[in-house]
Specification:
By secondary structure, this protein is α/β, with parallel strands linked by helices. It has eight helices and ten strands. The chain has one domain: Alpha-Beta Barrel (TIM Barrel), CATH 3.20.20.370. The protein is globular, with a radius of gyration of 17 Å.
Length: 253
Amino acid sequence: MSRLTVDLNCDMGESFGAYAIGQDEALLDLVTSANIACGLHAGDPQVMQKTVKMALLKNVAIGAHPGLPDLAGFGRREIKISPDEAYALVVYQIGALWGFIQAEGGTLHHVKPHGALYNMAAVNATLAEAIAEAVYKVNPNLILYGLAQSELIKAGDKLGLKTAHEVFADRSYRPDGTLTPRQHPQAHITNPEVAAQQVLNMVQTGKVQTTDQQEITLITDTICIHGDGPLAVTFAKRIKEVLLQAGVVLKAI
């Protein structure tokens, strides 16, 4: 019987200027892939360079994490953009991170949109297609990370990109498979044990319980931990422990 294999990813490189966000170095010891901010929702050139270097040193797969141009809102506020704008934003940000990766002798592994851009693309087919096309045009060998079974995954599959269905350790779900909006009181999972059990259940059974106590099916290729959370390292350690104890192999896609 084959063993279950899953990727554990983390959003990082989100510090900028005088503002330090997240514990990237500690998290890179725990995850198998990293989504590095590209300077629009967070990050700056020096932070991008430093994070790329750390990820390569620790043999963690590197992904571009393009977001909306909203530094003050951390890319988590919806901005109405056209498909053409989304395409250009994604190409621009992939290119910025790719330059640093090339300079350090590494390889870009995947692309995962950030925040509001990610959630918009999960349900808006036209926007999803523009983002998938941007990834494909830059490099058709890149892996597109998106919300499990979302419009973004469908768009990537349609173009022939390799896609990764992503689930979340620290967020709750609605019955349609989308994430509960952040302003909702039940949106965030703050207990690492609860998060670890949610992850283990998704990996082993392909199911998750929603906020209204329904059980829905989700494909689980990669698990996200938000690097900006105050307990991100604690969450990552516990989730990794629980998965390894269950015999799950942690490996980049």
